[in-house]
Amino acid sequence: MTALEDYVFETPENIIGYYVDSGKVCEIILGLASKYGPNKGVVSDYVKNRGNLVSIEFPERQIPDILSESIACDYIFRELLNEEIDRVNKFTSTKHEEIYREIMKVGKQIRSEICIPVFEFLNESKRRQNITLENFNRDNESYLREKMKQLDLFESSLNALSNEIIHLDFYIRANFKILTRLSRFYDIMLEKSTSVWFQTHLTKEPFVDTNIDILLILLGLSWTRFREAEGVIKELRELSENKLSIEIRSEEEIEGFEKSKKEVWKPPETFLRTTTKYWVHPNNVVSAKVGIIRYVPYLIFGVSNSELETLLDPYMCVEGHQVIDPKTIEESQAITSVYLDNTNAECFYNRISRFEDAQLFRLRWYGSNSGAKEKEIFMERKTHHEGWTGEKSAKERFSLPQKYVFGYLKGRLSVDDLIEEGVFQDKKGNDTAEKSKGLARDIQNYIMKNNLQPFVRTSYLRAAFQNQDNNQVRFSIDTNLCMVNEYILESDRKEPWCRLAEEVLSKNEVTRFPYAILEVKLQSEQPIWVSEMLSRCNATLVYKFSKFQHGMAILHKDRVPIFPHWIEDFHMKNYNVDTDLLLSTSISDLSFSETNDNYHNNKLVQIISNYKHKNNKDNQVIKMIDILINSYLNMRQFDLHGLKIQLINNKSQPSYNSSEIYYKNLKRNDDYTDQYINNIHSKKIRKLDPKSLFAAERVMLYWIRKAIYISAFVILFISKSKKNKKFSKALTIIELSFIPTIIITLIFGLFVYIKRINTIERRMVRSLENEKERIDYPNSSLYIFTTSCLILAFSLIINIIN
Fold first, then answer.
1. pLDDT digits (tens, 9 = 90+) for 338-348
2. What CATH architecture does domain 333-573 belong to?
3. C or N: which end of the chain has fewer Cβ atoms within 10 Å?
């Protein structure tokens, strides 16, 4: 892909004019508010002092025959926004079609100009065996250079198209957000309630439904062809460098290769892998996908590679391939999982504590579930293994029709009953069937023994990336994650076995996760390109993140004994309670609510809070107008990865009518760019491992054990001193002096424990200044040794005297 600094800091100049003109709209809103708003006197003074505002008139030809000035304002504002929306719609559709056609063109050219000619050239030469390495080098060196040059040009084209897709997605999101905020700004300034209507109307606009997915799928197919072209070029280059022997590819090998492309990938029954999970902001999801498909193709369930190829070459149907309609193909698949636990949250506790052999059980289905009896449901068991065991964590599963799920969970249907019903007959091979039967028995026994029942449901859209012929590398991105409370009192639970889609849920029974979840599953070390991709999409590493644990912590917080380590960061990042300017109904009456636009609103809150307490109402209104306008005009001060950046001096504040100045400041700043590129990396949420808490407890037990040692020595000392009555008074004083020593040791142990717990909770255990404290206090052994030696010395002296 193109280097980060080459596209992240500039919006293409030919596209700037197609963004919503927030400066113009803000000026018109202020003009309306200065004439017809509830604070028109203050706003009018503000307009006069600032100047450069659009004069607002009401020509008769522009406004219908209406009576109310309020309705006239609404009419003007709606017409203004409709003009902006029309421009966004036209640009989006035109740009989408342009990218679509260009990807199709490049994908076909890679196949027709490199893959097929070079492949046929190699095979024909090998089949005839009419070349030698010497004459190949002499006659075809220019041919090789030409093809390598073509390959570089195709790579540049695909990189450019990748960045075009990223920007198109950013363009849609940014304009949607700008339009939404402008409608709220209008409501605040004129104390209206048009934003609710406008948002409903906005979601139905064509640009919102732009199909970015099909562009990503086509781009992925083009990159797949590019990798095939790289392969044949590599073979050609090695042949020219005398590194490759001439081998004839048999017809059987060619047919086997073509057959593998037609096969549909099916998930294995058992997975062995190392999984790392990241949070990705929704603005960065397309960037992450673009980075992945450069190296790993899409894995679309139920569709073979040859069928996907028809998207680039529709005329392949002549060769017997089934043609796929681009409008029906979906890059993401709906996945729903129902997790099992009991009222004591034992599965949750075992998993969060990461005990060896901790198990988690869930039922999963793909696509929609209307309650059909024959719907295939997968019963899965995930088993955690510690690193010291030498085993990898595994996921095992078997499938059964939905009509048997309730009876299986309740124990009314045994595995033998399922066998009689023919549930395991369609398994391929006797070994697979026997493993499924054994797994079904083990899971049912565990469910019955521990009284497990459905507790949490997770639903999301998953885009998967993997080669269909192996499971070595796999990526998945889960979006639109929603979690639902599935718990029902056991006495009230009847069929169906889970909640239906039409059931009405209360607010406390459902929660939506604001980020996408990127899972990187590898069976070997992480490649360099993966690290680069994570940096580009600003992914946040969340150690051992679990949808099940998160759902339990949010929906069943009264049942879980301990919260996951990321919960505190999650709340701080997304649910800061601050002043929500965008949801306010008026300037004078700002509401307080929870928002996840944290950084942006936190800054506004700090400024507004200061002025609310220090200024009168007029100054407060003026300052709030300044804050609101600057916040709306700076909406585009986000790079293509959703990161807010400041390219101008912090001391200078951009004016509300500074569209041209803003874009000039958005140009390349080499010093800032270098600093930014050096600082960008894959962020991590620092983990709070329960094992760290156990280690802190062991430290406290260490001090208690030392206090017991001292006590034993003191008791021995007392028993010896009773025989010597000559020094009884002095010895008694010495004996009593050791009692405070024992008490101080115990108190110090407790102090160390509390301090270490607070340090762990603040995620400071890895800091350099506390590095020694991670082990223990270095002088503790000297303290214990000195005290023990003194006691033994006194005891020895007494024995000598006796």
1. 999 999 999 99
2. Alpha-Beta Barrel (3.20)
3. C
